[in-house]
Every structure is written in structure tokens, then in C-alpha cells.
Amino acid sequence: MVDAELARERVYLSSLYGRLDELRDEAATQLGRVRLENPGGTHQSRSERDAFARIYEDRIAQLNEVDERLVFGSLQLDASHTASDQAQDAGERLYIGRIGLRDPEQQPLLLDWRVPQASAFYQATAATPLGVRSRRHLTTRGRELLRIDDEIFDSELLDDEEAAARLQGEGALMAALTAQRTGRMHDIVATIQAEQDRIIRSELQGVLVVQGGPGTGKTAVALHRAAYLLYTHRDRLASAGVLVVGPSASFLRYIEAVLPSLGESGVVLASVGQLFPGVETSEEDAPETAALKGRLEMAALVRKAVASRQIVPTETQVIDVNGERLEVSPELIRTAMRKAQESRKPHNTARVTFVKSALSALLAQLVAQLTANGSTVEESDFGYLREDLRTSYDVRVLLNSAWLPLTPEKLVRDLYARPGWLASLTPRWTPEQRALLLRDRDAPLTVSDVPLLDEAAEYLGEYDEQASVAKRAAKAQHKRDVENAENAIRNMEVEGFITPEALASGFAETAARGTTAERAASDREWAYGHVVVDEAQELSPMQWRLLMRRGPMKSFTIVGDMAQASSPAAPSSWQQALEPFVGERFRLEELTVNYRTPAQITRAAEDVAERNGLVVTRSRAVRETQWPVEHVAAAPAGGSASATVDGLVDAIEATIARDRAIDEGTVAVIVPDALEPEVAERLVARLGGDVGRGDRGLSRPVSVLTARQSKGLEFDSVIVVEPQGIVRQAERGAAGLYVAMTRPTQRLSLVSFEPSLDPSFAVG
Ligand SMILES: Nc1ncnc2c1ncn2[C@@H]1O[C@H](COP(=O)(O)OP(=O)(O)OP(=O)(O)O)[C@@H](O)[C@H]1O
């Protein structure tokens, strides 16, 4: 029976691949035809031809991308839910895959996992079968079908509670969960669980917060939701774009393959250090400084700092304009300033008004003075005189001292480097608080500076008037391109296959400016259609403020775990994080099943976290492995400090060797910050190229990381070194240890000088 079914499915699978090949051939033929077309004609028609070529190239790339695991499941519908009146036994079978396929008569052969009909594949249970008689998981390698697993829904066989707790497609799920990790995250499209699916398909509008313990699939859900929203709301999101924000560049590298494997490549991925175009940083301030810079009152400080750069002189200034001596009163500057301020435009933009008004007033004074001195001044001379004033060195100095155009970087760097100015802006701060900001003008910018730069850019406006004119022109051009693309699509009769937005992106002028994603990433004022935020528990109020600006429609998916919050500026609840921006208007969903970490490790990590005062939502781990959490006691190899570290590294090396003898999976060595250099250097010396250090070494079999660097990642084996050191190293060190202990998919070892550590130890 199973063999017969396998054979039957193999035939169907081969017909699906046949269709995939056909579509690829068709696209290749179209591409060849478009390329051969006479390149003559207007510039517009050449541009259209290139744009069509690009669309076919993208289509071919997309079809190649989905070749592996093209189809992963099917549903046998109840006869009552099938379109025809076939007998119950022969209820319709729907196949679910990474993309949708239709035959030449437009009959569906394969459903895209994101269409509404496919949701039963993820949601159906014996208790609520949703019109499904059975669900089948198809396991493939390349184009070969290896096995099928069926779940028959007969509600009489299961009670409700059992049904609710049951995992969907357990065999396929377990195979995915126990697979060795590669250092790159994979999609979970074949085994999305019901509670995850409901979140993925939740409506686009509004702010959705997903709270869940470590390993509950928050990152996976957030990325699949991005793919789902792009598919379902293509018209809106293709042009506005989707932004995915993660904690670090290494985390983005870890997740970057997931969306392309789901056929979506136009998403902007950015770390919190990359959210201000032109600045890229992973440096962080000392915790107290980061905490201060993350506070909302910094926004007011930046506003005050900008305002304080509009300075009315205290005394009358004497200037020279081509030999004519002018006395400029503070009042003249004040009046010009008031006019500019009344425009309510940002500093650099309003400066244009200031300069114009000041020049007019100076011109009037100059004319009056020349006339009083007996010269005749005609109205036709005003233009020259105005130009004399504008180019006069003294006038430029006068106007710049009153109102200097500023870049965000200059403003922020000055603020840190000029203690007197900072003190004048912060009369209520203590000297200790001010000292936290004090820094050399050339010191590198940090992740915590990024929101301050963004805030400064808001109050300063465009520094370069030319750039802002060019930006407006580009936007207008893009609008015209989309209209032209609509016409071209109608003419070519390819409606529905190509969106005007995608075609327009290939037009020569637009293409020269980059894809939608590239343009969005380089434009600070881009308004994204949806923003996904991962590890969101770490964000400071100032970082939230920046993100809300990037998503003015307030359509957000926010995922995180409050118990894992370790950054000094992190809020203590979602309520507290979001209240200043959206009040109570957010929906909260929870994920409760831990897919990553085996039960014995989850329990140990949760116990340790609670003993150290964290409030954790206990999760249900789906599996247990045979390896208990191991405590490895290190022995100092001598009396000196260096020998002490050697002793620790001996124990780590032995544990790595043990782990690597079990399987060839990835190993992470997670160490307190202070020990990282010594441990990493010694391990590199002993194990050579097998050891990678920090964010950049994740492709190596063994990675040495701090707890912060390990955030969001996972490894087959994890060795946590001196766990108490991680707890003690920072105010929220317990969260750091909780993160570290929940990274393994198979084994956890704790290496410490303290012998026989209790698994639920607490650090006082
Ligand atoms: N439905 C699923 N099918 C297969 N694998 C899954 C599923 N859900 C989650 N996983 C896997 O579980 C692991 C943990 O998922 P993920 O990294 O998304 O969790 P997380 O909640 O973001 O964790 P953390 O808070 O620790 O960063 C990943 O390997 C992911 O692929």
C-alpha cells in the first residue's frame, strides 16, 4: 500500500518538476526573444526591453531557487469539501509547495504555501480537521521522493487535549529539528506548527508583538511572516518595501538565506547599527553610557542642541563689505532668525530663509548708508549689491556664526566633545551623567549613537540642498516610470505575471538608482510598508523612536523575549517599550513550544534563570536528548593567572574533543567578556583554523563568542565557560547566561573552576 502510494506520488512529483522545467524553458525563450528584439526605437522602448529581460532573469532565478523541496506536502480533502461530487474516498488532493504552479489550462497543480487554502496544511488537527481527511508530508532529496508520512484525522481517535498538544507532521518536524546545524538558518516552510501559522498569517495592519522563550521559533516565524505578507499584499509592499531589523551583522548573516529560499529577495535587512544610512557600526558604549543614550530625554537634548546653534550675537558686529563699513545690530539677526523659525522647517532648510531675510535687511542698511553718504543707488543696482553682500567674507562669517549648516554627525560629535556646551544644555544633569557622554571628537560612533544621529537629522533636515532636489526629482521620475510600466504590461499582455513596480525597477533610470530595497536602504526618510523587528526586547526607547519613523504606517511585527533582555537600555515589558509610541494599540501573541533546545537543557536554563531573579515563561520542549547537562571542573595548571587560564582552556579543549567525537556538528564556546581574548587566542593556537572568533568566525566548526554575540544563534553543542562570570559581568548578566545556555540543539556543558556545580546554581 505504502509502496503503491510512493509510486503514485513519484509520478505526480515528476509531473510537477516537468511543469517547473516547462515554465523555466518558457521564461528562457521569452528572455531570448526580448534580448533579440531590435534595440532601435525610442530610449523608453529600449529601457522597457531591458526591464522585461531583467524580469525573466529574475523569474528563472526564482524557479531555480525553489527546485530543492519544491513540494513538501499534500492534503486529502473531505468529499464534502471537494469541488466535485467524487466519492468520499477519492476526495480531492491538494499539493502544497514553495510556489504555486498551474498547468497550461490554468488549473492548479501546486498551491503556494501562503494561499488561504494551504493554511489547513498547518492548522488542521484531529479535533478541528478543517475539511481535511488526512495530511501527508513528502520528504524529498533533490527531485527524488524519499518517504511519505500520513496523519489521518479521525476525531474519535483523540481527545481534545491530546489533539491540541500534538505536533503537526511529527516525523518531518523531528527530522528538521535533529538535523545538524550549519551556521545558517533554514526555512521551516514544510513543518510550520499551528500556533506559528496563525501568527504568520495574522493581518498586516497594526503592531503585532510575539513573545516567546528561547527556541520557540520567533525568528523563523518573523521571517515567514515577512514572506507571507509580501505575497499576500504584493501590490502594497512591493513598492513600499519591508525592513527586517536584527541585533547584529552576524545575526543577519545567519538569517539572510531564509527569505531568498522562500522566493523573496527584495527585503531590506539591517542591524541596529546600520539604521542610519552612511553609518555602519557594531561598536557599543559602556553599559551606563548606552543606557543614558537610550533614554527618551536624549531626543529633547538633541532638539535643544540644534536650537542652541541658532545664536543671536550679544553685541553689534562691525563688518566690511567692499570697503563699506556696516554695523550690524543683534536685532537685525534676531528678526531674520524669527522669520526663519516661524517657517517651522528643520535647521538647514530654515537657514535658507534666515540667510535671505538677513541679506535683505543688510541690503536695506547698505543702500541707506550709501545714499546717506551721497551715492546714488538705483534699484537696478540692488542685484549686484546683494551679490556683494552674499559673497563678502565678513557677511559669511556673520551669518555662519549665527546659523551654521550642520550634519547630524558633526552635531553629535560636537555635543560629546564640548563639555561646556553640553553642560549649558543639561542644567539638571549631574556632572557624572555628563561625564558619561564625554568623548573625543574622532572616537568611533557606536550603535547607541545611531538613533541620536537620526534624531539630529530630523531637526537638521537635508544638509545638501542639491541632494534634496535630486531626491525629489528621482521620486517624480519613479512615479512616471510606474505609469509607463503599467502601459507596457498592458501592451505585452502579461498582466498578473509582472507588477508595474517590478518592471519599473528595471527601467534604465530607476535601475541606475538601484532596486527598491537598495533605494530604501540608502534613504533615511523611506517609509516602509512593514517593519519586522527581531530580538526586540533589547531596544532602547531611542531605538524604538527611530524605528517608528521608518514605519510611519505602524505596521510592525515585533518578536522577542523579555527574559532574554540583557542590554542596559532595554525596557522591562512590551507595554513599557511600546506605550510611548502606540499606547495600548498592539496585539500580543505567545509562542510556547521550544523547538531548539532539548528538554533537559531547557529545564536547567530556566531553573538557573529563575534562581537569578529572571521572570521566564516556561516553555515545552518537543524532545529530550540522551546527553545530560554536563559540569566540567577545570583545574588551574599552576599558580599564575596565565596558568589559571591554561587550566580552563585544557578543560574546554577536552570538552570540544569529546563533542566532536560524537558528531561533526557545530560547537560554540561562550565565555565571559573579560575572558574572551585569552580563551580565543589559546584555542586558536591549539586548534588552528577550526576555531572562529566572534561574529566573523561563525562558519568555522568551533566558534568562540561572548553571550551577547551568541544572541539569536544556535549550535549543536554549547560549552559555557565560567557561567558565574557571565552573570556577574553586567547588571543584566543573568539574562546573558540564559541566552548562552539556550543556544544548543543537542548538548550543553558548563566549564568552571567551581567543582560539582549544582545545575540550578544561583549567583548571589
Ligand atoms: N515549525 C518548525 N519546524 C522546524 N523547525 C523549527 C520550527 N519552529 C522553529 N524551528 C527551529 O527551531 C530553532 C529555533 O527557532 P528560532 O531561532 O526562530 O527561535 P527563537 O524563538 O527566535 O529563539 P531565540 O529567542 O533563542 O533567538 C531553529 O532552528 C528553527 O529552525
How are the elements arranged and paired?
Elements: H1 2-36, H2 43-65, E1 71-77, E2 93-97, E3 101-102, E4 108-112, H3 119-123, E5 132-141, E6 144-152, H4 160-165, H5 170-178, H6 194-200, E7 207-212, H7 218-232, H8 234-240, E8 242-246, H9 249-255, H10 258-261, E9 268-271, H11 287-293, H12 297-307, E10 317-321, E11 324-328, H13 330-342, H14 347-372, H15 382-391, H16 393-402, H17 408-417, H18 419-425, H19 431-437, H20 450-460, H21 465-492, H22 500-505, H23 508-512, H24 516-522, E12 530-533, H25 541-550, E13 556-560, H26 574-582, E14 586-591, E15 593-594, H27 599-611, E16 620-621, E17 630-633, H28 641-662, E18 667-671, H29 676-687, E19 691-693, E20 702-706, E21 715-721, H30 723-728, H31 733-741, E22 744-752
Bound molecules: adenosine-5'-triphosphate (ATP).
What does this structure look like?
The structure is a single chain. The longest helix has 35 residues, at 2-36. The strands form 5 sheets. This protein has a 6-stranded mixed β-sheet with strand order 3-4-2-1-5-6, with helices on one face. Strands 9-8-12-13-7-14 form a 6-stranded parallel β-sheet, with helices on both faces. It is globular. The chain is α/β, with parallel strands linked by helices and 764 residues long. The chain has 6 domains: 1-178, no CATH class; 202-276 and 524-594, Rossmann fold (3-Layer(aba) Sandwich); 287-307 and 408-460, no CATH class; 310-402, no CATH class; 465-509; 599-761, P-loop containing nucleotide triphosphate hydrolases (Rossmann fold), CATH 3.40.50.300. Adenosine-5'-triphosphate binds at residues 173, 176-177, 188, 191-193, 196, 212, 214-220, 561, 595-596, 712, 714, 742. Adenosine-5'-triphosphate is lined by residues 173, 176-177, 188, 191-193, 196, 212, 214-220, 561, 595-596, 712, 714, 742.
